[in-house]
Amino acid sequence: MSRAPVVLVPACNRWLGDHPFHIAGRKYVDFARLAGALPLVVPRLEPQEIDEALDLADGVLLTGSPSNVHPSAFGEEVHDPSLPLDPERDAWTLPLITRALARGVPIFGICRGTQEANVALGGTLYQAVHEMPGLADHRESESAAVDEQYGPAHAVEVVPGGVLEAFVGVPRFHVNSLHGQAVKTLASGLRVEAVAPDGLVEAFSMPGASGFNLCVQWHPEWQAADNPVSMQLLQAFGAALRQYRDRVRGPLPRVAAPA
What we know:
By secondary structure, the protein is an alpha/beta fold. It has a single domain, classed as Rossmann fold. Helix content is 28%, strand content 22%. It is built from 7 helices and 13 strands. The protein has helices spanning 26-34, 50-56, 87-103, 112-120, 146-149, 163-168, 228-248; strands spanning 6-10, 12-16, 19-23, 38-42, 59-62, 107-110, 124-126, 154-158, 172-175, 182-185, 191-195, 201-205, 213-216. It has a 9-stranded mixed beta sheet, sandwiched between helices. Helix 3 packs across helix 4 (112-120). The longest helix has 21 residues, at 228-248. It starts with 5 loop residues before the first strand and ends in an 11-residue tail after the last helix.
């Protein structure tokens, strides 16, 4: 008998009326459950609480969000003040990423979470991909229905020899695209796992880390149960969560049946 592995799901910060709230998208919570995990939504953490939270965790799911990583985290000024930011989330997720990697805690990053990971490790971001010469507009149409927004947008080319190729077993597949920002300079020690047709980084990993880690720019959580690639990624993440749980915590003690 063993318990479900616990996955930390960072909450974002929003004002609803006159009151501040911590919120997390349900699709990410459901994604963690599809991996066989118990999702634990985590509010803003103080610096001294990060290691305590990791003591409870068997994995981290870095979620997407309407907000962007604050450009000050990678040495730039804000390009478009109209876009949402969440420096409160940045303040604890960036150090959480480096500490989780150092422990070998499995990490899966999605969209904003992928950008967070790159910045946490010393990389930079394009603040407006669509303004860059030679790069496509990777944003969704705001006027489109949600199923169209999350529908297949373009193919990604899988870089041979990496973990993504090992997980999905195909050289190319189609993904959705709902982001205005993306990796500009990849942090030292990271490996490109997939690229878009325009050359934009769509996935990366950190081969030097001891635990599972994969960050993707698209949204595999969207209708994941019906997407073969999403399920292959979930199976790999789930297996890593269970391995970490068993290695660090061991099985639950057996409880004798009542006489």
